[in-house]
Amino acid sequence: QIIISRPTWLASVELCYVSVPANQSKDRFTLLPAWVFCLGEELTIDGTDGQSRETLIDYAYVVIDAISRRKLSR
């Protein structure tokens, strides 16, 4: 779905239980088995002086329902 233009890697994968709201109720939750993927991405930022560059690592999490394979994270 996306084009990867920077160095990206899979930092971790875990099978966990996550809580999601149950049927439009604000006070009830359901636990679902889900895969939690942690993705690392290398970012290079130019310094304020225009000469230096800094490399940072940005992490993002993607959560997938282990049963329906539906993406739960945004």
Explained architecture:
- By secondary structure, this protein is mainly beta.
- It contains no helices and three strands.
- The chain has strands at 8-21, 29-46, 53-65.
- The chain has a three-stranded antiparallel β-sheet, with no helix packed on it.
- 1% of the residues are buried.
- The mean pLDDT is 86.
Question: Which key features would you list for this structure?
Answer:
74 residues, mainly beta, three-stranded antiparallel beta sheet
Low-confidence stretches: none
Provide the helix percentage. under 10%
Can you summarize the main beta sheet? 3 strands, antiparallel
Broad structural category = mainly beta
The N- and C-terminal alpha carbons lie at a distance of 14 Å
Quick one: overall form? elongated
Number of DSSP helical runs: 0
Overall mean pLDDT score?
86
Q: What portion of residues belong to β-strands?
A: over 45%
Strand order of the largest sheet: 1-2-3
In N-to-C order, the SSE pattern is EEE
What is the radius of gyration computed over CA atoms, rounded to a whole number of angstroms? 17 Å
Work out the number of β strands. 3
Write the layout of secondary structure elements.
Layout: E1 8-21, E2 29-46, E3 53-65
Antiparallel strand pairs: 1-2, 2-3
